[in-house]
Specification:
It comes from Desulfatibacillum alkenivorans DSM 16219. By secondary structure, the protein is of the alpha/beta class. The chain is about 30% helix and about 20% strand. It has a four-stranded parallel sheet, with helices on both faces. A three-stranded antiparallel sheet has the order 1-6-7. It is elongated and about 65 Å long.
Length: about 220
């Protein structure tokens, strides 16, 4: 899932301080799971902002709404009749949702209320860890299902590097060496022969750094 964290209250206040009518728009998907932008967080943020501006002697209309998804035209249509009546929409969706909302409602300012962090998994309540960088050319079949792109600090494809010590990464004794995890996994699976194969140079043209990407499902009719 996409993992996000709430922006600092000071930053949010600064971005909405000139608004007289504000819609805080939550998302019922990933940001709900990571407790950053669901219905509950929308309510908490709305209350905090109302209290802040009340103390400043200002009256601001702050409304709340949570959509099933903000990355889908169908659900964004639910605010079609009200979007343009606000000075700004404060979106608590990931960066995709913020951009999609902004593209759909060009006459309304759309602001981000969270920082999008990474694609990750839930380790336990309140703890999410990165597992994927969406490179567009998955190598997990060769690495025992452990991603060297997201879990190796150097993105090494033929590891481990010389900085690995006692199964830990050189950046911190608290961080497991991704390639030690890969070796352990391949050993357990009896597939160390795959580890011995030198990985070719990776085609990074599909990586996020290569610019906007598009995936088209051929059997979907437009």
């Amino acid at each position: 899932m996409i993992v996000a964290s709430p922006k600092p209250m000071e930053e949010i206040i600064d971005t909405v301080k000139d608004c007289k009518k504000l819609l805080i728009l939550g998302c019922n998907e990933c940001v709900t799971v990571c407790e950053a932008g669901g219905k509950k967080e929308v309510g908490v943020l709305a209350s905090a902002l109302r209290m802040y501006f009340a103390k400043q002697g200002r009256q601001i209309q702050i409304d709340e709404r949570t959509l099933e998804r903000q990355c889908d035209h169908e659900y964004l249509e639910e605010i079609r009749d009200i979007a343009d009546t606000y000075d700004a929409i404060l979106s608590l969706a990931c960066g995709v949702g913020v951009q999609f909302t902004a593209e759909k409602y060009l006459a309304t300012v759309v602001l981000p209320g969270v920082n999008t962090c990474f694609l990750g998994a839930t380790e336990e309540r309140g703890l999410w860890t990165e597992r994927c960088q969406a490179c567009g050319a998955c190598v997990l079949a060769k690495t025992g299902g452990i991603c060297p792109v997201s879990r190796c600090a150097k993105r090494v494809l033929n590891g481990p590097c010389g900085g690995s010590t006692n199964g830990k990464c050189e950046i911190s004794k608290e961080v497991d060496c991704a390639w030690q995890l890969i070796v352990d996994r391949l050993t357990a699976l009896g597939k160390m022969d795959e580890y011995e194969q030198i990985a070719p140079l990776k085609d990074w043209s599909t990586d996020r750094a290569g610019g906007p990407r598009k995936v088209v499902k051929e059997d979907v009719q437009s």
